[in-house]
Each structure stands twice: as structure tokens, then as C-alpha cells.
Amino acid sequence: MEVFNQLIYDFAAWVDTHQWSTALHESFYVYNWVESTHVVALTLSIGMLFLIDLRMLGLAMVDIPASTLARRLSLPMFLGFTVMIITGLLLFYAIPVRSAQSLWLRIKLVLLFAAAINAWLFHRRMSTAGRSWDTAVKAPMRLQVGASLSITFWVLIVICGRLIAYDWFDCRAEPSSFIAALAGCVAGQEAF
Amino acid sequence: MGPYTRTISVGAVIVFGLVFALTGARHTTWEALLPLFEWMETTPPGVISQSYGAAFALVEAAHLIAMAVLGGAVLVADGRLLGLILRDFPLRRVLDQSHRLFVWSLAAMILTGVFMACGVALKVYYLNVFWYKMLALVTGVLFVFFVRRPLLRGDVENINPQLLRLVGIASLMIWFSVAATGRWIGFSG
Amino acid sequence: MKEKNLADGNKDTALAALLAATAVIVGFIIYWADEIQAVREMLELAYG
To answer: Do residues A58 and B87 touch, judged by C-beta distance below 8 A?
Structure first.
């Protein structure tokens, strides 16, 4: 774990030395625009995803065949996720050390990974589930479970994303050793 | 009431809005609202927000999630109006279903928004961009419930497609403005 | 008579929509053009 954390810190501290990183961080408007795009693109990425999930649970857009809705909204959804990833990387790039050692960002990344696996499993199940349930209000139980997990993961992801800005567990604030280990604080680190 | 009641009402609102914006009425109204905003900070939501940063953050996260759903509903409905998405599905169906989702998410946004405003009432009171957001929000709500919904609840198939497109574009513009000015509030002060 | 009322009502709703949508679009363009101009001025001040 310590080796892992040291590696991450070294990488982040190295990125921190980049001129563009500093420029982005200290920019008058650009950082704010990147962050705003990241937030507003939520409507495109998880907006579409939630519509699909709610359809699977029979809670929205029930007049439209479920798999059709999923297929049609996929393109804007993936466009949205692409924007999220690019802006997310830029946000990391601007403030690498604090981000890399952010407990909330770390949890968020784990959740993102879990959500991706869930999405992949869901997609596989949907492809093999046939079309008989397409016009029914609710999708088959396994797909409903997948949709519920999806909503849960993404709600938690948004919450974690929002909490990154709070400095309760920042390394600079000298948290408890348990938190410090999870967050990857390195003893005697100079960059923050 | 005459045959063009709705049109006249819209015209009246526009005229009223212009008069309000271009005269001292704006400032006078703003000053009159100060007691309300001072009171907001003393309400339970206000006190909770100020005492527990985590509570405020959670409500804000809920606000963002509702925004995602509302944005999704708006994008699907207006995308359909503009002929960009779900083209082979009846306009009526897509619009009705999106509207229901829209109403629920709007309610959630207003509830969470009021909660947050109570927490930072005096801060936002003095922020220009907050008032622009409120203006955009009120315009959006009036537009949806007084103009757009009545139009689209009727016989959509016989409405001029150009008008439908115009309504779709206007709708996207309003809700984009609400989102953008909303996000801007987060950067100010 | 009822059909005429209905037709008039539809015309009214359509005209109201046209008026409102146009007002919104014009307002949007004016507001955001102004904001972009303000941003430009700020950037000029900041970076020269």
C-alpha cells in the first residue's frame, strides 16, 4: 500500500512541475470553464443513463421499448462520458497532488470502475435477454437489479465528486494515520 | 376573454419584463427582498447548511442529480422536437413521457435549491448572477407551463414544424442558461 | 361554434408560442453576447 501511495505521489508531484499544469490551475477562466463543463455534461452522460435505468425499472418513458431507448440514447450518453473523462483528466492535471491524495476522488474512481463493470454486465445481459420484455413496463429482474445498482453507483459518484472540494481529509490537514494511508499521504511530502 | 388571451398575456409579460428591467423598479424590488433573505438564513435549512458543510454538500449533490435527470428530459424532448433523436417514435408519446420526468426533477431541483439558498441567502442576495438565474428559471417555468405545454398538449401533428423547432431551440436556450448561471454562482464569492 | 373556438384557441396558443420563443431567443442572444463581451474585457485586463 505504501509503495503504491509513494508511486502515485511521485507521479502527481512530477505532473505538478509541468508548466501547463500550473497555467491551468492559475488561469483566470479556463479552469472554471473546464469544471463547469464537467458538471453540466452530467446532464448528457448520467442524464441519458438515468433515463435508461428508470425505463428498465418501469419508472419513466414506459411507452418506448426499453432496448430501443437504451440503444438510441447510447450515443449522446457516450458523448457525455467522453466529455466527462476529458474534463476530469484536465481537472486532475491542473491540481495533481491534491487530487491524487483526495480520499473522495479515490473512492470515486473505485466506484467508477464498479459502475463500468456493472454497465458491461448489464449490456451483456440485455443483448442475450431477447425482445419479449421490450414493450413491458419493467425489464426482467436481473436487468432491474443492474439498473438499480447503476443508479446507486452514480449517485454515490456524484456525491464523492462534490465532496472532493472539501478539505476535511486533506493531507495538508494532517488526518489520522488510517485516513492518511487511504488517501496516500506521504511522510515529509513537499508538494500538496 | 377574447380569442387571443394567451398571446396577449405573453405580450404583457414581455412588456412588463422590459419595463421592470429598464427602470428603477428592479432596484426597489431588490431592496424590498432583503428582509426575506435575512430571514432565510435563520430557517432550519439555513441553520443546518451553515452548521454542517456535509449537509449542504449532500443537498447540492441531490441538486446535481436532479439536474442530470431534468437535463436528460429536456434533451430528449427538445431533441425530438428538433428531429434529432427518437425520430421514429410519435412526438406525442416522447413529449408526454419527458414532461412527467421534467416536472418531478424540477420539483426536486426547486426544493434542493431553496434549501441551499437558505444556507447562503445573504451571499447570493448580493450576487448579480444569482438574480439572472432566478430570472432564467422563472422564464423557464412560465415558458414550459404557460406556453410550451399548452401548445404541445394539443394537436402536435398539425403544428407548423418550424414553430416546433423554434420552441425546441428556445427551451434548450433557457435551461442551458439556468444551468450555466447556476454553475457560475458556485464560482462567485 | 365549438370548432371555431378550438381553432382560435390553437391559433392563440401557436401565436403565443411564437412570440414567447422569439423573445426567449432574442433575450438569450443579448444576455450571452453581453457576458462574452465582459469576459473578453476581463481577459484583456488580466493578460493584456
So the answer is: no
Domain boundaries, position B58: 42-187
Identify the residue among A37, A51, A81 best suited for mutation to test binding to B, counting B beta carbons within 10 A and taking the highest.
Answer: A51
Of B64, B79, B184, which has the smallest distance from its Cβ to A162's Cβ?
A: B64
In a domain, C44, yes or no: yes
The C-alpha atoms of residue B114 and residue B110 are separated, in whole angstroms, by 6
Q: With DSSP H G I counted as helix, E B as strand and the rest as coil, what are the percentages for chain C, rounded to 5?
A: 95, 0, 5
Number of domains in chain B: 1
Q: Is residue B137 part of a domain?
A: yes
How many CA atoms are closer than 13 Å to the CA of B175, on its beta-carbon side?
Answer: 25
Q: Is residue B8 part of a domain?
A: no
Give the three-class secondary structure for A183: helix
Dist CA A71 CA A134 (whole Å): 12
In a domain, C7, yes or no: no
Q: Is A156 on the interface with B (CB under 8 A)?
A: no
- Complex ipTM more than 0.95, yes or no: no
Rg (CA), chain B: 19
To probe the interface with C, which of A26, A27, A28 has the most C CB atoms within 10 Å? A28
pTM over 0.90: yes
Residues A125-146 pLDDT 10s: 888 877 788 888 888 899 999 9
Residue A177 is predicted with a pLDDT of 85
Contact between chains at C24 and B173 (C-beta distance less than 8 A) = yes
